[in-house]
Amino acid sequence: TKRIMRNSGYTEHGTPHNHPKHGEVTFVAEKSAPRFTSEEIRSSNRWTLVRKMAEAVANEDWTPTLTEVETIICQDAFTQITENPSYGVAESAYPEYFEEDATDDTFLQIPWPEGPNSTTTQNLNEPFREAGSDASQHHGFISTVLGEIADEPNTEFADRDAIITVLRKVVGKLSPSDRGELTTFVLRNHDVLLNCLEIDNQYSLYKLLVTGIPEESDAALAVGDAIKSYLITTEDYEDLSPLYYMSIPNEHMHMLYRSLAADPSRDEIVFPVLGRFLREYPNHLPHILNDLYETRNMTAISDEEREGIDQILANLMGLSDETNAVLESEEMYNIFRMEDYDTSNKTREFRSKMLDETLQKYQITKEGVFVDIASGTGWLEDDMKNLGYSHTVGLDFTFRHAQIAHEKSGQAVAQADWKALPLKSEAAKVVTCLGRSLPECEGPTVFSKTLGEISRVLEPGGLAIVDMPDPAKGDYAKRLESYRAHMLKFGVPESELDSFFYEISSPDGVHFNDRFIPPREDIEFDLEMQGLEVLEVIEEPIPNSNGDVNLVFITRKVMDVQKHAIKTLSSALKRKARLPKTRSDWVEPKGPTQSN
Question: Where is the Methyltransferase type domain (predicted)?
Answer without folding.
Answer: 371-465
